[in-house]
Amino acid sequence: MTPQEKKVYGDTTQPLPRRDRGYYNRRDKSDLGEHFVAPDGGWAWLVCVAAGLSNLSLYPCLQQFGFLFRERLISLGMSSSQVTAIINTNPAVSACTGLLNGPMFRRFTFRQVAMAGSLLCFTGIALTAFCETFAGYIFAYAILYGFGMGISVSASSLAINTYFQQKRRRAAGFSWTITGLGPIFLPYLVTFLQSVYAVQGTVLIFAANSLHSFVSALIYQPVRYHVAPTLMQVEQQQQQQQQQLEPQAEILCVHCAQQQKREPGGIFSSQYLCQDDDAQRPGYEIIEPGTPMLSRANDGWYGSNLSLNRSTGRKRFRTVSSCKDLEHTQRLHSPIDEEDQQQDTEREFFRPNNFRREREESNLESRLGCTCAEQRALYASHQAALLERNKNDDTQMAETLAKMSFRQKLVTFFDLDLLRDVTFVNLVAGLTVINFGELNFSILTPFILTDFGFDTSQITVAMSLMAGMDITMRFLVPFITEKMTWDNRVFFLIGVVGIALGRTIVAGTRSFAVILSCFVWIGLCKGVRTIFWPLIIPGYVPLNRLPGASGLQLLISGLFTLICGPLVGLVRDRYNYSVTLHCLDALSFVAAALWCLEALLRRHRSKRIS
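That's the GH12573 sequence above. Prediction below.
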């Protein structure tokens, strides 16, 4: 505290010390330190709810694309290939933003990224309401809306995976349960809004609704604000506070510190309240100075009767010097009579402690001198050494980067070295193929049921029933699997294979009752898949590499969707939706087979090694 602040603040009005937010790496926002422990509660549950609400406000235009734009795109004269291209370009662009996840989350926090994504989504949806050409839909709906949704969903997912570790399954279940509320009531809401505001007004309403994700992004505070410090961090903070809490002007030597601690006034300046349990501790003033009183008089124990009724045997001392200032003289005691050790101790005990206190301080002051200048110089040299060390670290890092080739810089910047891991590549390939099939089925469901000959009311009932089973399973799965030790990939594959089997039956029937039963089954399996889908990559890679790993997965998924998306439209134009469903199911079965094959090979290899 500066001398000017000393004049303003008293002992009870000093400002609180700055709260230490823990480990912070300004160059890499995703680096949380080696000893980071996720909160797994408290503010983390607000982040979980905010992530669910953010996705709930962003997904409607994607989930209800068929309901919103089916008739409008037909009236504009667009072919099935163009419609499929628009549908697949949006998630492709969203996934391609994954390439930016690594460098983006190192430079910005997930709150900043989520806010930017929310604004991009609003802009894209609002412009989509006025589009009338294929190029306009590609720019507004596919690129702007897709890019904004990609970075916003990535930020929400990273926030949940950062705030939760032990309760990650439950948090993902709650978040995606909130997100799953949309498909239950949105078909009815879209039908009602279109009858009142037409397609353009309905899309503008959804654009305004997407701004709720901006408010949700404000909840994504940096996790270091809510992390309980570990024992090692507490010790480090105490050491740092002890060394750096006071500025250079406040550094005092022992001599000056003793001068500040001394209370004004003499031994008879006020009434002292003595410490009966410790005779070595000084008393406390309890009345105003100028009223000399005995400190232990008439208290029933140290009263005057004790000193009058017994002979203490105190003898006179012949001293060479009795001066209180003992800086350059030595006090010599020549007792007339010898006292035993017990009487010396007792005499020392009954002596008022304020005499002893002042005498000890006087002796201490006589041996010490002011060394503030030396200590300040030492502190300045220590701070200069720290600054020099930081500069050297920055210089070494810059030299290391300068020696790297362009290829090495590219690999480091985008975390491409993760592709050397065979297991990671297999996981990414499986997720890419499975998500491609799930996305196309979800978006094309209204078109498929329309092609099968069902009307709008039947389609609405079927989709709402599937969404209801989906959200029910999302809520129950975390509690059902909490005590089960199976890997997340096992649960994920159960859901994926179940969905593929249900779609296979749907492709071969035209009975509305059978389709409703299949949609119930697909909804249950979809809930299982949705819960464990965002846990596959975080369960395999460390937290500090999660942005880069998830970004690579999204990038590969986006490129695959961008390349293979138009093929879905070609298959539909050449054959029908039944063949299209069989092709999507075949992709899911192939991905599940690859994962199972890798698990068997690794188990066999581990047995051979053991």
